[in-house]
Amino acid sequence: MKALIPGGLLLAVEGIDGAGKTSTAALLAQYCGERAIACTLSKEPTSLKWGTELRRSAQAGRLTLDEELRLFRLDRAMHVRGTIQPALDAGWIVIVDRYYWSSAAYQGARGADPTTLIADHESFAPRPDAVLLLDLPVATGLERIRRRGDIPNAFEDPSALDKARAIFLDLARQFPETGHVIDASAPARDVARHCLAIMQSLATRKLAGNPAATAWFLNGISSSES
């Protein structure tokens, strides 16, 4: 049996390239898996039709702004219909490595209006319970990318990343009830601990009135063990 959360819980892990999003998202999902908490870990762009086109463009050269916006919207709509909304409806925790704040930041850095993009995506994509914004200087992020043996792709131009970072931080100021800015230059264990504390707080709030489920979530203790 897996522990469920009424209405589910949606966490988006955001930030510029090299901030540690993928590792952090995986650690949060691991925490849930070790406690039999129903959880799904996903990523954008997806590996579906439209996401594959976007991933290909990162290596071959960026598309026009309008084409990027179109493909990201199509990919996200498919992701919401096929993965995100069904999991939330079933009471699962959904952890997404990038979500629509990334479109606002990265396409915003190319000239699109971030506020308009947020409003458009929220017309069909569920708003996250929390956006975990892993923030660090662009130079640090690019150094991490090179250190792991990768070559920065077409989305990772330093000037564009500076603009994207500024938009991410502005979104966190605009949506303080959702956005949580986390210092991603800190040790990975501290970043993960900070993100985990936010996830625990949100989950226990939704589980208020169910102490057995809360104990299970926090400590891996089921009602039969308590």
Which structural traits does this protein have?
5 strands, disordered C terminus, 54% helix, single chain, 226 residues, alpha/beta, five-stranded parallel beta sheet, Rossmann fold, globular
Task: Explain how this protein is built.
The protein is an alpha/beta fold and 226 residues long. The protein has one domain: P-loop containing nucleotide triphosphate hydrolases (Rossmann fold, 3-Layer(aba) Sandwich), CATH 3.40.50.300. Helix content is 54%, strand content 12%. It is built from 9 helices and 5 strands. The protein has helices at 21-34, 49-60, 65-89, 100-106, 114-121, 138-147, 158-174, 188-206, 211-219; strands at residues 9-14, 39-43, 93-97, 130-135, 179-183. Strands 2-3-1-4-5 form a 5-stranded parallel sheet, sandwiched between helices. Helix 2 crosses helix 3 (65-89) and helix 4 packs across helix 7 (158-174). The longest helix has 25 residues, at 65-89. The chain starts with 8 loop residues before the first strand and ends in a 7-residue tail after the last helix. Residues 221-226 have low confidence and may be disordered.
